[in-house]
Amino acid sequence: MSQSLNRPMSVKKNETIQMKKLTFLLLLLTPYLVQAQQGMIVYERVVTYGFEVPEFARGFNVPKEGNKEVMLLFNEAESMMQDAPEKSSEVSQTDSRSKRMMAFMKMGSGSRADNETVLVSYINRDEGVMVEVRDFMSKEFRIESELPVIPWKLDGEEGEFLGYTVHKATAMIDTVAVEAWFALDIPFEVGPEAFGGLPGAILVLSMDEGRLSFKATGVSTEGLEMFQLARPDRGDKVSRKQYERAVEDKIKEVKRLGAGRRRAMKRQN
User: Fold this and answer.
1) For the chain, is the Cβ count within 10 Å smaller at the N or the C terminus?
2) Within 13 Å of residue 110, how many CA atoms lie on the same side as its CB?
3) Could you tell me if 204 and 9 are in contact, meaning their C-beta atoms sit under 8 angstroms apart?
4) Is this structure's pTM higher than 0.70?
């Protein structure tokens, strides 16, 4: 079955689907499905880089996108997303020279999207708490905050993905458009990173016109050994406000240094 990024499934329009219908279906399914108290979803995460590869760097085989597997573990109250053990690096397929060149290109771009990665995302729905470990320009931060409420809207489209009937939801977060497809057959309010809050697990998500996407490659809610999720403790602990300030200051510093180098090059010419 053909699966594109923004419409990764065969989709049929059904204008009559509304939240009441989804809630009704969830109530019908719940008695049969709540026996599964925990589960795991493996996603393929793809990010398209925004930097331009200059002529001198094209021989380094710098990739235009990063691809890795992440896994989401969840139970009734908690969820945690982190890199899958098998593929923990976005650039594992490239040699060390290409990795160094890509790191240089990312930092030189001064783009937040190119330089920021969510390494771990822990959510406790009972407590309304989220803890993220983010890497920004090779420095790890641990951000503790309230669980965000995402303003999801259902537009009545449904389709099929990995054998599940999935429903479409969209949201605007600041100026970024988000599209998600969730499955009522997996009755947990979970998804990749900070995304969740729908009446079923998110199997496909894309944002910023597909620049960042998550697509489930495997779902398991049976036969798993019992596990416990622990809040991450790595990285420098900061508030959300402190983290945003640190990111803003670093981007300004990189742009200032870049402008200085360009002026120096012009004087030399």
Assistant:
1) C
2) 11
3) yes
4) yes
Identify whether 40 is part of a domain: yes
In a domain, 3, yes or no: no
CA 184 from centroid of its chain's CA atoms: 20
Domains held by the chain: number: 1
Domain holding 198, by residue range, is 10-268
Positive or negative: CA dihedral 84, 85, 86, 88: positive
Residue type, 59: G
- Digit-coded pLDDT (tens) for 232-252: 999 999 999 999 999 888 888
> What is the biggest distance separating any 2 CA atoms in the chain, rounded to whole angstroms?
74
Mean pLDDT within 43-56: 73
Q: How far apart are alpha carbons 244 and 164 in whole angstroms? A: 38
Q: Binning pLDDT at 50, 70 and 90, where does residue 9 land?
A: very low
Mapping DSSP to helix (H, G, I), strand (E, B) and coil, where does residue 27 land? helix
Q: Is the confidence at residue 106, as pLDDT, over 80?
A: no
Q: What b/e readout covers 139-148, taking b as 16+ CB neighbours within 10 angstroms?
A: eebbbeeeee
Q: CA-CA distance, 196 to 210, in Å (whole number)?
A: 18
Distance CA(166)–CA(180), nearest Å, equals: 9
Q: Residue 1 falls within a domain, yes or no? A: no
**Cβ neighbours of 208 (radius 10 Å):** 16
The Cα 211–Cα 189 span in angstroms is: 24
Give pLDDT, residue 258.
Answer: 58
- 126 falls within a domain: yes
